[in-house]
Write a structure and sequence with these properties.
The protein is an all-beta fold and about 525 residues long. It has strands at about 35-40, 55, 75-85, 90-100, 110, 115, 115-120, 125-130, 140-150, 155-160, 165-175, 185, 190-195, 200-210, 210-220, 230-235, 240-245, 255-260, 265-270, 275-280, 285-290, 300-305, 310-315, 320-325, 330-335, 350-355, 355-360, 365-370, 380-385, 390-400, 400-410, 415-420, 430-435, 445, 450-455, 460-465, 470-475, 495-500, 505-510, 515-520. About 0% of the residues lie in helices and about 50% in strands. A hairpin with a 2-residue loop joins strand 18 (about 255-260) and strand 19.
């Protein structure tokens, strides 16, 4: 269900479906990922520590194939781990870490840290990280290669020692972040019109209005030390965007989302709340104010629907702010929507407004449906969660008289869910679409019966959802390339922001490449 084209002449969806079992993202036990083994059991202390080659039994591996592992490459690595439990037992589960192999003498990275011990020979691969804490205790993390059938992937075994004792054992499968096997740069008629590098911070989101593109950036994340802010391009000629202005405020750097209403431009700031600019001169935004004015709020994303402005906040505030923007440059706070938090990282991540309801992607708290018709009372109508919930973004539409939510998480293996939310108190899953088990969705937009998805390392994916129980890919554009300047091994890397303003173009933000303008596909 991850590729293909719609069947010619297929009848329209009639609204019937089968409720699908919800298995969650990144959960379950996939079984061993490699034929190797870690000799010491959890709790044992190897004589030579985790870096001792005798820790790993590679006798069942064809280690001669490890010559296929490239000198340089970005990998996402699934670990099927065994972790000790308080009762002395073991539990198997999997999770994903990243890896950046560097062949020019610089340190490779694995498990989010520089490799301190590296062996790369024709029939041997070992990556080790040894650290000593302030208390004198040590942690050693080691991956030993087993087999590499080709240059795209390899398997291995993993061990972690804490103060000399094995605390984790795992088999591993490393998947290189090349374009999916058999794919080209693009397919289905989605083509690149222009590409413009964004030098400011890490570019994360975009809004297009008045023939200008406003790209917001964060000061940290993938480009530490580069200031965040907003970059303004004149896109009258989509094939040749022209840089008009760069804005960076010293006390306000972590900008993540942007929206426009009339002459007002709203930027979500995790430093100060919502920053309001006047763009009556679209090439020269002028700072007007920050809201709410009473106290700084960490606002992650913004959304405008009619005369409402919504600001979704992550930790520590974790609220959704509701403003009246009938006077766009003077937002008036109406409500703060706060819900019990499901975990330490729970919070309002993003939202979609549709027919008097707000569909909030509340991260660990799941998808929340709120009646926002009455500003004085905005009740929660229903919630949808799943194992390992990371609800991040959604799009909503009506199909065959049903209110359907296209929902995506943000995590390794996060994929698209199609939810029937006609009855918000009884939301069910009726369809899904998956790509690789280590990549993550970010943002999505529903245009008629086509869903455009910014899918990090998978680039832009266009799905035909005319039969929402069976989404079908009809086009793609691979934006992610290992060799792009400033490309990293971070899971949240690649195509991240997307807008389709209805002018015939698709505007995409890639964390490394910057502003990419593509043609919008013709059709329903």
């Amino acid at each position: 269900m991850d590729s293909g084209t719609p069947d010619a002449g297929s009848p329209p969806w009639d609204g019937t479906y089968t409720v699908l079992e919800e298995l969650g993202d990144g959960t379950g036990d996939p079984g061993a990922l490699a034929p190797c083994d870690v000799v010491p059991q959890v709790g044992e202390s190897p004589a030579g520590g985790c870096l001792d080659p005798s820790v790993f039994d590679l006798s069942a591996c064809d280690t001669s194939t490890l010559a296929n592992v490239p000198a340089d490459g970005i990998f996402h690595t699934r670990l099927r781990r065994e972790t000790a439990q308080p009762d002395g037992g073991l539990v198997g589960s999997y999770y994903t870490v990243t890896m950046d192999l560097v062949g020019d003498g610089g340190p490779s990275k694995f498990y989010y840290a520089p490799v301190t011990h590296e062996v790369r020979e024709a029939n041997r691969l070992l990556l080790g990280i040894h650290t000593v804490g302030r208390d004198g205790g040590s942690t050693t993390t080691v991956l030993a290669g087993c087999e590499a059938p080709d240059h795209r992937s390899f398997t291995g075994c993993f061990a972690r020692c804490t103060n000399g004792r094995v605390t984790q054992r795992a088999t591993a499968h490393a998947d290189r972040m090349l374009w999916r096997e058999g794919e080209e740069e693009s397919s289905g008629g989605l083509s690149l019109v222009s590409e413009t590098y964004v030098a400011q911070g890490t570019p994360l989101d975009i809004y297009v209005a008045k023939n200008h593109a406003y790209v917001v950036s964060a000061n940290a994340y993938l480009r530490p030390g580069k200031p965040g802010g907003i970059t303004v391009f004149d896109v009258t000629d989509r094939s040749h965007p022209v840089l008009k202005k760069v804005i960076s405020l010293p006390d306000d750097q972590l900008w993540n989302s942007v929206w426009v209403k009339g002459d007002a431009l709203y930027v979500a700031s995790q430093d100060t709340g919502i920053v309001v600019f006047d763009i009556s001169d679209p090439a020269d935004p002028k700072l007007v104010r920050r809201v709410p004015s009473s106290a700084p709020y960490a606002v992650h994303t913004v959304l405008v629907d009619g005369d409402r402005l919504y600001g979704m906040g992550l930790w520590p505030s974790s609220n959704t702010l509701v403003f009246d923007v009938s006077s766009p440059l003077e937002p008036v706070l109406l409500q703060r929507l706060a819900f019990p938090l499901a975990g330490a990282y729970d919070g309002a991540h993003d939202a979609f407004a549709y027919q008097g309801r707000l569909y909030i992607s509340h991260f660990e708290g799941g998808l929340k449906v709120v009646d926002v018709a009455n500003p004085d009372a905005m009740p929660l109508l229903g919630t949808y969660t799943y194992p390992n919930t990371t609800a991040h973004h959604n799009a909503v539409g009506t199909f065959a008289g049903r209110t359907l939510v296209f929902e995506g998480g943000e995590n390794h293996g996060a994929h698209l869910r199609v939810l029937d939310a006609t009855d918000p108190a009884n939301i069910v899953k009726i369809g899904e679409f998956r790509l690789r088990p280590t990549t993550s969705i970010h943002n999505m937009l529903l245009v008629g019966s086509r869903l455009y998805v910014a899918w990090y390392q998978e680039g832009v994916r266009v799905l035909d959802v005319s039969n929402p129980t069976q989404p079908r890919q009809i086009a793609y554009y691979n934006t992610h390339r290992e060799t792009d300047p400033e490309r990293t091994d971070d899971v949240f890397e690649g195509a991240i922001g997307i807008r389709i303003p209805g002018d015939g173009y698709v505007y995409v933000v890639d964390t490394s490449r910057g502003l990419l303008i593509m043609n919008e596909l013709a059709g329903p």
